[in-house]
């Protein structure tokens, strides 16, 4: 990255004026020190770039690719409130900073993915119990210029972390220069992304929108193996969708650019020295975009620096003029910009804010006692009666969090104003307080119950007549069963524990944030004191009018140069054209074409068999010929799944109809599109089909698991549909699984989906959970999932038998298929072991 010495030369010129002779050097010694300090900061010329975006968008993989090796854990669980920075250094080194102890340094063989995971991975450091505040990683293999520092922020859509993301945006954004917003190519959460990008844009930050995981795109194949859309066409479609989103959100479309990459292939291409893989990842294009963007940011920074220097020059000139006029200190508060009285007022407002937050925290104690009273007073064993109580309690917690956040935001706004008034750089302050709370959930238990069934035969019929007279159970047989009921004691105990944890968390937040804010206030007082002291020193010195006049004259000339410095920045990212811009046709032999068609026929046939099997099992459990209901947030994914499982193809007109009306039914199929407009007609149709018997498929985005949890668990339509409806067999269908197959971490995805399944069962107790399925091109993965889920206690012998059977199938001849099958089976084997412990 080029080094712009213009501002540095100006500072040298100013220093020359202020130190021309002993008198000046004596008089302006503190001013000279100020300019020297600024020169040191500007000489570093660090460009701070924050990587933000949805959870599981591949941010950690992206940072690893920039680091040139796999150092960060590439998990799909968010890493709490820990900020990670990455930059170029002379040696490989990571410094772990803690809130309550000194830093720890990892180097050489001690710096690896496993070591960093101890501190940065939520599964290893749950709730950040180690109190890690930041991790700084430096390596000579860093792909960017040494003047560019990457800041990896926590994910912005993790379920139940909404307030944390608000603090991220509020506190972190003012301190950075450029925002790289990472999403996935197939992201269907436009509204979620739009909300975040709008906040970034409003804070006047340049945006590079990265659509990651282009390696997960597969061509869309219709009936008879015909390719309806190839990968290039699909990528163009997704890119145009993102570009439209940016144009709608940002005021100036030139400040943003959309880049499509595969961070995984970029990383593997670097690590394995696989040039072809690296080139196909578009990662070089991404690096060029960052460096060009950083180059364009330098004039912007110089413009702000010029304003800062001008303000300092004005302060020097004004101070001299006021002293020559003989004004007293009390009359020159304008020179200092901020008075002690104003700082006292800021400190008092901060103290009031602390008290407000403390009062809000006390409300948690009242909530705890209310929970216990309400739950204890309910005699019903119906889960709905308890869910209403829990929802009210959780909502109260959200209100408390919202109030705390509003108070923090108000104080942060006041703090930033003082930073500006005192001509101080806020960019060095970006520690984030963590604000993660837990929701209360209903706990269940099973009690042994009995039910009477009629015995067959005429004799037993007579006994039943007598049993009514003598109040006996003659003519019946007693059958035992386990009934799932509310565990009231455990629910109360759990509520107490969570409320106590939330309270302690808020107290920790208050302490952490208070320490940061107090340091800022101390800095302000020191700056005001320094300026006052400087004024007093100058006032006590002899007045050499000629020298002061010459200084003023020379400084005004320099100020004019700075004023003429125009920020000529074309807020745009210079990007080379996409390497997949042109469609390329290849000629293949008739033999290869026939083989291709045969392969697709085999896939279609086997998928239809899977669909028939699922339907049969669901019908057996419901004892009726049920309908098939598909609940989705992405029409294209739903369309693919229906085509694969049941051989029914929706045309474009039908897809547009579903998008408009939200609900579409034909024959034994019903499709509900959650992202539809939700018209009155939609709710009337929903009411009509609500109580029918269904085999239901909820199709959700696996890579955006945080957002998917939120969509499913907070959906009013689903809540209405599930309520008091015991005719539902529910299957969870994971879309966007290709990303996990490519990254060889399908087990982690299944762990998160199992967690989602448990929450769905807890939230909607009336439904019958069936299978976890995958919306993949190859049906062999669903065969593995079905086989595994039908075994109550999965043993090593089951693992071997199923693996042998599946590997023999022609659909699993490839290395990738066999590895993925093994990962699926390993997950169920490990899960069974854990449940057996």
From TrEMBL:
<dbReference type="InterPro" id="IPR027417">
    <property type="entry name" value="P-loop_NTPase"/>
</dbReference>
<dbReference type="GO" id="GO:0008053">
    <property type="term" value="P:mitochondrial fusion"/>
</dbReference>
<dbReference type="GO" id="GO:0005525">
    <property type="term" value="F:GTP binding"/>
</dbReference>
<keyword id="KW-0547">Nucleotide-binding</keyword>
<protein>
    <recommendedName>
        <fullName>Dynamin N-terminal domain-containing protein</fullName>
    </recommendedName>
</protein>
<keyword id="KW-0175">Coiled coil</keyword>
<keyword id="KW-0472">Membrane</keyword>
<dbReference type="GO" id="GO:0016020">
    <property type="term" value="C:membrane"/>
</dbReference>
<dbReference type="GO" id="GO:0003924">
    <property type="term" value="F:GTPase activity"/>
</dbReference>
<dbReference type="InterPro" id="IPR027094">
    <property type="entry name" value="Mitofusin_fam"/>
</dbReference>
<keyword id="KW-0342">GTP-binding</keyword>
<feature type="coiled-coil region">
    <location>
        <begin position="329"/>
        <end position="370"/>
    </location>
</feature>
<dbReference type="Pfam" id="PF00350">
    <property type="entry name" value="Dynamin_N"/>
</dbReference>
<dbReference type="InterPro" id="IPR045063">
    <property type="entry name" value="Dynamin_N"/>
</dbReference>
<keyword id="KW-0378">Hydrolase</keyword>
<feature type="domain" description="Dynamin N-terminal">
    <location>
        <begin position="49"/>
        <end position="206"/>
    </location>
</feature>
